Structure prediction request, 304 residues.
Amino acid sequence: MRKTSLRTAALAAALTLASASSANAGTPSGPYAMFKFCPYTNPSVGSCVLNTTTSGTLKIGSTTMPIDKPIVMQGGIESLGPSPFYAAVGGPTLQAPPGKVPGGLLGIVNPAPNWPGPLWTAFWAIVGAVNDVSATIEPVQAVQTNFGNALFPPEDGSDPTVARLAVRVHLQNPFLGGGCYIGSAQDPIVLKLQTGTTAPPPPNLPISGNTGNAYTVWTDEPNYIGYLQVDGNTLVDNAFAVPKAGGCGNIALGLPIITQVLDALVSGAVNLKVGLPAAAGTNTAIMNGKSSIASSQYVLNSEQ
Prediction:
């Protein structure tokens, strides 16, 4: 393969439908094997996308969580303009490994003076044994994209969003139970990630993303042209709000406390610890990574 810098003609060539050729049912091969979970047989899908976030940070409330494990989003889009993101087939659309919450449960505070003594005793016993808390980003609504904005941020005041993600964050620890979430399907965290410069409400100040290095990767096969590769891009948003946590503490501790009361007490403590709810202008998402985009027809033609 050889690489060439991106220009409009090369971009069009990389994403234009391939000329008619026979395709055998099977699995994408060669340089297009990375798109094996793309819904490329869907007639509405014009291009396949594989986006990997390799580093960054997610600050919600008073807590900053590093992104130190790859987050992969894969599927299909209609075009490089405004488009729904079509879910992956046979694999996860969004694969976000659990990340560690700095400090875990240490520093959690009592949200009310009437916490029962036995609850505190049990709580600190668990904190002493298993302090770590993991956080997993989970989508709760369909993703909306405009990958053209990733390459060429608009300068006319139009919506600069590259990807709109509505998510919740699953907090997991033996004390928190299995249903502790920041956000929900009804009240999600909505990220509007862009490569341009943000305009957040105070106290946050504007921050800028990065379009990265975009180029066409040409393939040697005679029936294919290539795919678009974007390395070193940075997507940012610091104008989103974060709702409070709920559903925490739904575990049996052998105490005569009804589930609703335990949830209210523990969720309240988590919210004080993390600093939730957090208004727009107090949170920040910075996601560094890379993207691969290929014509769905090229992916189809590569089947073996």
